[in-house]
UniProtKB/TrEMBL annotation:
Annotated source species: Phytoactinopolyspora halotolerans
The keyword Transmembrane helix is annotated on this UniProt entry: yes
Segments of this protein annotated with the region Disordered: 524-602
CDD domains found in the cross-reference section: HAMP, HATPase, HisKA
Cell compartments where the protein resides: Cell membrane
EC identifiers of the protein: 2.7.13.3
Protein name per its UniProtKB record: Sensor histidine kinase MtrB
Domain Histidine kinase: residue ranges: 296-513
Length: 602
């Protein structure tokens, strides 16, 4: 039910966010509506006040003349007995009523004569029954009339008997004054003026203003739609053509009509598109030639490398019979040939990725077995470096559909790099899994990564410190190939680092090859990152940088905050959804950390 109620609101908000035309028309109509309401209210008030003031002036004048007429008749009476005033008062009331009756039309007013509290005289014209008098003539008006000898008026309402029975109320103007008999008795004379004509005029003006306001709103809305359509349509056309252009249809162009600003925009867009097409063509040709060159050179070097390898093997096996200088030369030749062969193999692998020829041979494997195999192979290097490789693996299986050869190569690169750059500190390898993904994180406590380097480590031939010697013979392509292997599986390979606090790499793979993943069982930013960073840096907040590959860009349905994050400056931090301080943070051990096995190697 709640979703059904919020669906129209989401549709309206989506249209507001997507369409400039909707926003312009809505803003125009809103501002126009405010202006129309203010203008209509002002006009209605002025017109109503004018009509009522005119009627009030006329009514006060008629009532004043009636009061004077009644007072003259009372003053001219010769009889001083108070009980004999009733016939005269009745004649005066009837005479005043007849003045307001015009043949063939409704009465202009009704007349009411009321005595004081001691003189209970109540006279009224035929249109006003006496029982209506207390409700028709307000008590406040009577108090003013009794208190001062002048004419007062106020607005009131009288029952509507046009259909034979009271069915509503008619607005009226009550005007009253005081008359005094020669004996000193005081009487109140009231005129009741129906305001039907004024009400009808006000209703007519109100209807006219509402109709004119609606027509004006429609006109302004139509004008806004027409104007914005003339402007937005070329922009939308340019957006569609740009989308086709970005999709690879480089021959798309905008139609140029006329010589106005929009025509110049279309012409400039076409010139830009033509220039981009030329530049992209050149880059594609250059990239194709580069890829072809790398592939050809890599294949062509195979034959001479095999020959040199055979000769070097012979020299290396006979090195004990050589003098010390030649002996050392044979060992150096063998080591550099190993490194050259590894570089050649990496170049061939990169050329396969560039050509789109890499094939994924996915089978179900327990990721813990691959991690254990890689750790066992890296133990000799860790011993030489004085490091220990700490394993934190769950007791349950972490099975996923993976290409074991490629994933083992990724893990080997991560572990060997951590040991080599760990400055003799421990290297922690964590494994975790949830319903949708499996993950491995490799944490070292070495020099870490400087601001911005977490996005550069995956570039080809990039080195964090070019002055450092590569004692293990790295080629500079390991992380680039690892990133491509992760993308081939539909997974993520991410890096985090702080200067002086070490670094952590996290590999996240879907349980089923090719499926989209939105979260990882392990956090990318370690739980101890802030403490180590603050302790070692000693200034401000530690730098935190998170790099996400294109493969992990969240798709539909991904939680908020799982997009890319950039690097901050040295004093700031950039968090992610996986960071310990961010929303949706998970335990650094990941799912299954409660029953994880921790073993120490080396």
């Amino acid at each position: 039910m709640a979703q059904a109620l919020t669906r129209p609101w989401h549709a309206v908000r989506g249209a507001w966010q997507r369409s400039i035309q909707v926003r312009v028309i809505t803003a125009t109509l809103a501002l126009s509506l405010i202006v129309v309401i203010l203008l209509g209210t002002t006009l209605m008030r002025q017109i109503s006040d004018g009509l009522l003031e005119t009627k009030a002036d006329s009514a006060v004048a008629d009532a004043s003349a009636g009061v004077d007429y009644a007072q003259r008749n009372l003053d001219a009476a010769a009889d001083t007995a108070s009980g004999s005033w009733s016939p005269l008062l009745s004649d005066i009331t009837q005479s005043l009523t007849n003045r307001g009756n015009q043949p063939g039309s409704d009465a202009l007013y009704e007349v009411v004569m009321l005595g004081s509290e001691d003189n209970a005289v109540q006279l009224a014209s035929p249109g006003i029954p006496l029982e209506w008098v207390p409700g028709v003539i307000p008590e406040t008006l009577r108090e003013h009339v009794r208190g001062e000898e002048r004419v007062f008026h106020t607005y009131t309402a009288i029952p509507d008997t046009s259909s034979g029975a009271p069915t509503g109320e008619i607005p009226a103007l009550a005007v009253g004054g005081q008359v005094t008999a020669p004996t000193g008795d005081e009487y109140e004379l009231y005129y009741l003026f129906p305001l039907t004509e004024q009400q009808a005029a006000i209703d007519l003006v109100r209807t006219a203003l509402v109709t004119a306001g609606l027509l004006l709103l429609l006109l302004l809305g139509a004008l806004a739609w027409l104007v914005t359509r003339q402007v937005v349509t070329p922009v939308r056309l340019a957006a569609r053509i740009a989308e086709r252009f970005s999709a690879g249809n480089l021959s798309e162009r905008m139609a140029v009509r006329g010589r106005d600003d929009l025509a110049r925009l279309a012409a400039s867009f076409n010139q830009m598109a033509a220039s981009l097409q030329h530049q992209i063509g050149q880059l594609e040709e250059l990239s194709r030639m580069q890829q072809q060159f790398v592939s050809d050179v890599s294949h062509e070097l195979r034959t001479p490398l095999t020959t040199v390898r055979m000769a070097a093997d012979v020299l290396h096996e006979s090195r004990e019979t050589f003098d010390p200088v030649v002996h050392r030369s044979a060992e150096l030749l063998q080591a550099q040939l190993d490194r050259f062969e590894a570089l050649l193999n990496d170049l061939l692998e990169i050329s396969r990725f560039d050509a789109g020829a890499a094939v994924l041979n996915a089978e179900r494997h327990d990721l813990r077995d691959l991690v254990q195999s890689v750790i066992d192979a890296a133990e000799p290097l860790a011993e030489r470096k004085g490091s220990q490789i700490v394993q934190e693996m769950p007791n349950h299986q972490c099975v996923a559909e993976i290409d074991s050869r490629r994933i083992e190569r990724v893990l080997r690169n991560l572990v060997v790099n951590a040991v080599e750059h760990g400055e003799g500190n421990d290297v922690i390898v964590r494994v975790a899994a949830d319903d949708n993904a499996v993950a491995v994180s490799v944490r070292d406590y070495g020099v870490g990564l400087k601001p911005g380097e977490s996005s550069l480590v995956f570039h080809r031939f990039w080195r964090a410190d070019r002055a450092r010697a590569r004692t293990t013979g790295g080629t500079g392509l390991g992380l680039s190939i690892s990133l491509e292997d992760a993308r081939l599986h539909g997974g993520w390979l991410q890096a985090w680092g702080e200067p002086g606090a070490g670094s952590q790499f996290r590999l996240t793979l879907p349980r089923r090859a090719g499926e989209d993943i939105t979260t990882s069982p392990l956090t990318l930013v370690p739980a101890d990152a802030n403490d180590l960073g603050n302790g070692r840096l000693g200034v401000g907040g530690p730098y935190q940088s998170v790099t996400r590959t294109e493969a992990e860009t969240p798709g539909p349905g991904a939680p908020e905050g799982t997009g890319r994050t950039g690097a901050s400056d040295g004093a700031g931090t950039t968090g992610t959804t996986d960071a310990p301080h961010a929303t949706g943070a998970t335990d650094p051990q990941g799912s299954g950390s409660a029953d994880a096995e921790v073993t120490r190697g080396g």
